[in-house]
Amino acid sequence: MWQGQAAELVAAAESSARSGVWRVTGVAGSGVTSLLVDALTARLGSGAPASSVCVIATSKESGGRLRRVLAERASQLENSRYVAEGTLVRSVHSFAFAIVRAASIRAQKPAPRLITGAEQDAVIRELLLGHAADGRGEWPPEQREALRMVGFARQLRDFLLRAVERGAGPGDVEELGRRYDRPLWVSAGAFLREYEQTMALSGAHSLNASELVTAALEALSLDPGLLTMLQEQWETVMVDDAQHLDPQSARLVSLFLPSAKLGVIAGDPAQSVFRFRGARPEFLTKYPADHEVVLNTSFRHPEDCSVVVAPTASEHALVVANRVRRAHLLHGVPWSDIAVIVRSVRQLAGVRRALLLAGVPVHLDPTDVVLAEQRIVASMMLGVRALTQPLNSAELEELVLGPIGGADPVTLRRLYRGLRQAEMMRGGSRRAVQVLADLVLPTSWRDTPPEERAIEYEDATARLTEREVDVLTRIRAVLDAGFQSRAAGDSVEMILWSLWEATGLSDRLMAASLRGGAAGSQADRDVDAMMSLFDAAGDYVERRPTASIESFVRHIAEQQLPTGSRDRRGVLPDAVRVLTAHAAVGQEWHTVVVAGVQEGTWPTLGETGSLFGQEELVDVLDDGIDPNIPISRSVERLAEERRLFRLATSRATGSLFVTAVDAPDAEDALEPSRFLEELCSERGIEAERVEEQEASIAGTPGGRHDRRLLSTTAIVAELRRVVCDPAERPLRREQAARQLARLARAGVYGADPEEWWGMRGASTREPLQNPRRSVQLSPSRIESTLRCPLRSVLDRLIDDADTPIHMVRGTLAHGFAEAIARGADSDAASALVYEAYAGLLDVPAWQRETALREWDTLIDNLERWLENTRGQFEQVGVEMDMRVSVGTTESGAPLRIKGRMDRLERNNDGELVVVDVKTGSSMPAQKNMGEHAQLSAYQLALSRGVVDGDSVRDPYPGETPEAVGGGVLVYPSATDVGKYTTREQAAKTPEELEELAAMLPGVAAAIRGPALTAIVNDNCDNCRLQSICPAQPTGRMLTNGS
């Protein structure tokens, strides 16, 4: 029950007599909004018509919350049946729109359309790009280069919003710029005029939220009859959170308060945190009110308040997730009554990921979605684009791996492998990615007869598994549906719906959403994103009925701000809210975690809109302050940041938990905010400091039990760690084993040792090769095996969908050298390989010119080496096959060196010299060339074989191998023409060759398996197998059989 002045307000609401304007102020949690709701309920209960009541909230979100509470309270009245022409609660912009719409009806003109911030941002950026392209606009020369930048467009938009919010038009902004010698203001004013003219030419009267309020004031000034009519209609006018109104909105509301029988202005000046958006608290504090109600007692008294400082960002994320899970699991707090509040939007993604990884369902505001950044939307837009234009290889892979294809990377590789094998069987030469594109993309098959397309599909899928065929069929079905819809002339909405319906994702997401949990919250987010996309498509079609699907795709891609789309949820999901401090205004939860309170982030003392002088514009428009007078705003900004922090820490009713990171030695040093010390002093608490790894390794000596992440996976991981650690006490290992057995019997995944990778036996004990079969080793294989047997075997099994460009480069360079050696014209050969390389080069445009220039240099250097060495060498052969016996394996099987030499030369002493051309840039030091295994293997083969035409073979009886004079590595890849590099290996002695031959049986055994040895070497950093290599930290087994 209310007492004192608050009770008088409720009594005044029950009376039909005029009571004037009431100002209600109070601290956070004192019940300001509750008093407003009680007064409004009393007003409706006294029989006042619902259509005579107008409640104004400062934002769409706060208006929605207030509307739900009011509807619930009104339904409990004795006479709860009432009819209203419109909603009782409106945001200030909805209020302004209602006025503008009423004015349009009275003037018999079409109602304006409200555009989103994302749409306005896209229009502004498009106009700026036009200015940059053709030199239009009155921009100062020093700023013209910035016109293409997104940051410039954002600051310009914010500047114009502040001007429009205060009723300043293009001429006003230009005049202020000239008066105070601000060239950018003059340019911005001229741009605002062009923007307004552009929007007028679009055919629809389009207004953004800031322009609505000005438009409403203009409509009322031009039509006094409308103002009188609305004043007579709205006998009760209430404003909640009035401290968030900007001056223009305050002027609009002020027109209706004096005429109201009951007017209420409610809020808390200490929560004024939207100055960066132009809000000022003066309307709340200085409007002449007839009655004052002050609520000084807060009803939010968290029983638990703690501050925790973590040593690293990863530990911090774990601490936050742990606190949230314990609040739900141990204290029974519903997920929906828990919130994690951060300072900035940039922190939301990291917190969301940490919570989802811990199995916590998360809810983000669906109206804050940047559509193009949502993966499900990006995948759908990719599908739409595929209807009219080809996709590059990266986009095609994203289509397969995204929601439409639903494949994982392993399936994609297998799909590519199967398509490539099928293409080779048909005698074709297309790459796997091209085969895939030809099968699924409408741009590739739209002119192909259905019968021919069916045959090609059957041939291509002949070597695919059921899973791979399912992925392929799914993509084809989705794109076929979209293609048929577009061919039928359907609208953008219908084409999009045809694609979506064909994916079958709707039922799948609905099922996941109903199951709840972390997966359910992600499904909710995907559904919200798709609803927003369909809303955007509907609005787009309504504005442009004849627009093409291509223009809609561009429209979505150009939007880089949240769309502010409609939220149709009747019930909020049972999930933890993750939001910024500004979004937490007017809300409360049982458990609140204020996360990431770091110095430099909270407080953020940077100036808003510094390029255009946004704050100076606000000062001159609101207070007449000369913008050229230097004013320090540091104290003012710090005070607002402190108010924002106090607002965030006053949202909890049961438990408040504040976290930060103290990592002064990190790459990006992190320091707890100064506000933490203030909070600890006010609450009489001390900050707890988490020791390194204390939060992640539970049960360690001295570790806090409540630091353990309370999740199934974390507990199973800890028990497995204890069981597998030989250093643990036997009794502790035994107890951990018992608990794992209990969990395994309960069906908890990962508790049963049969499910542990590290405990499983080998899938086979059979060697990779039959020991009795002959072994053939190439010189490069010998070199790679001596370096690392594991990589030598497994690297050959990695199936790349596309041939790497460096391999293409090497193949073409060797082909050029062979052609020259066989008498081809060098200019013609150079032109042919250049054309081939340019055609296969798939790099960004800014790299292409450099890559082609480097190719020309490589070819020139290779030709120079050939010319410069003709006095030193005589060509014996090029691309010569070699197959020479060098002994037997450990099991007695024949052992041969088999390979191909780039070039075989004869020096002036008549000795054979092997030449290997290397197109890479990494080369060994000359001092290490004596140990170069590849050249040594070539020398061994030449020392035991004979040259026979274009090959080297085993000698027949009576034939004697020729003397070998060493080997040469040629590196033509240099930045300058003529700067090729060579590395020479001297001729090996018979003893050295015998020593190498004696090593080869061991080399053959090392790659025969089933066990393969991993050896750490200088090339480990460039190895593709690090994630599975037992010699590397990332590939080491986490469990063992101890």
Automatic annotation (TrEMBL):
Enzyme class: isomerase
EC number: 5.6.2.4
Top-rank lineage group of the source organism: Bacteria
Catalytically driven reaction(s): ATP + H2O = ADP + phosphate + H(+); Couples ATP hydrolysis with the unwinding of duplex DNA by translocating in the 3'-5' direction
Keywords: ATP-binding, DNA damage, DNA repair, DNA-binding, Exonuclease, Helicase, Hydrolase, Isomerase, Nuclease, Nucleotide-binding
Residues reported to bind ATP: G26, V27, A28, G29, S30, G31, V32, T33
SUPFAM superfamilies with a match to the protein in the record: P-loop containing nucleoside triphosphate hydrolases
Pfam families according to UniProt: PDDEXK_1, UvrD-helicase, UvrD_C
Lineage per the UniProt record: Bacteria, Bacillati, Actinomycetota, Actinomycetes, Mycobacteriales
Presence of keyword Nucleotide-binding: yes
Protein name: DNA 3'-5' helicase
InterPro entries, A to Z: DExx_box_DNA_helicase_dom_sf, DNA_helicase_UvrD-like_C, DNA_helicase_UvrD/REP, P-loop_NTPase, PDDEXK-like_dom_sf, PDDEXK_AddAB-type, UvrD-like_ATP-bd
GO MF entry, a single one: exonuclease activity
CC annotations in GO: cytosol; DNA helicase complex
Family: Belongs to the helicase family. UvrD subfamily.
Domain spans labelled UvrD-like helicase C-terminal: 274-586
Residue stretches making up the UvrD-like helicase ATP-binding domain: 5-302
Organism: Corynebacterium durum F0235
Record-level GO BP terms: recombinational repair
